[in-house]
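#lab-general

N.A. 3:47 PM
ok so I finally got the sequence cleaned up, no stray characters, all 325 residues accounted for. can someone with queue access submit it? mine expired

B.Y. 3:52 PM
send it over

N.A. 3:53 PM
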Amino acid sequence: MDELLPLESDQIYRAQIYTDGGCEPNPGPGGWAAIIRLDEREWVLHGNDPDTTNNRMELQAAVAALALLESSLGRCQVELYTDSQYVRQGITEWIDRWIGNGWRTKHKEPVKNQDLWRALHQLTQAHEVAWHWLEGHAGHPFNERADQLATQARRSLQAGLEILEPDMRSPMNPAGLTGVEICIKAAGRGGARPGVWVAVLRMGDHTRDLSGSDKEATTNALLIRAAAQGLGALTRPCKVTVYSDAEYLVKGASQWIKGWQARGWQTKDGKPVANRAEWEALLDAVARHHVTWQIVTEENLPSDMERAVLVATEVLEGLADAADM
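B.Y. 4:20 PM
back already:
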């Protein structure tokens, strides 16, 4: 498949979004919610997180709502209402300076919640968004509803119920975000020979192979690059499962990266994070999608992982033949 999910309509819809989020205690278990209104139609998103902050929940609500509009309708004119000055001021006043400073504040500290800010910034490029601040708990009906939904999401988590993933279904997109699977493989260098990376994308019965090589990059760097390239090939937001047999990639993307960012791209031992440029590129690629990272073993090996290994072998053989000519 040459492209995944091309946009098919130039129509621009007008929508209103009301968001809220919070924790108790802060940091701690949190919930978020968003109400999206389009003419007389309405749909609701909500989710929670067992270990988060008020600000992350406020950001998550805005990110989820704008991502759903992009996946369902393409570019929209959006009036977004939030009771978080952190969100409104961050996206309208601070973010250009952060980007210009390499995602650092005016005090040279790493920007907190950088993954969500990157996602939100990309989504504001996809829509025409006007940002409005509403005073919380002041009686505005949609703000009050969003607050109640976010509170319910948080309390369900505290009561021992399941973690709520964003419900990406809507009247305009009843099936939800399109599901995509990506299998990642990288093979290291041998002598002066380059290493290669492979990403096999699957959407239903359609597959696409992506690959590349590099004489300088390590196998770990190639793994990250493969994931970024695979996600970057998707032309609209998707619900993506990324499979890899490399714990470095899976745990790095799903667990370690938030801590690295919070420490200014340093490890717990105070050392610079290896492959920072690749990780930052992956953050940008992840921002538009709902991504789950899955480690694979011989017992649960997807068939497309076997395909990724085959493609990597073929690419390596081709490089070897070219070098011997």
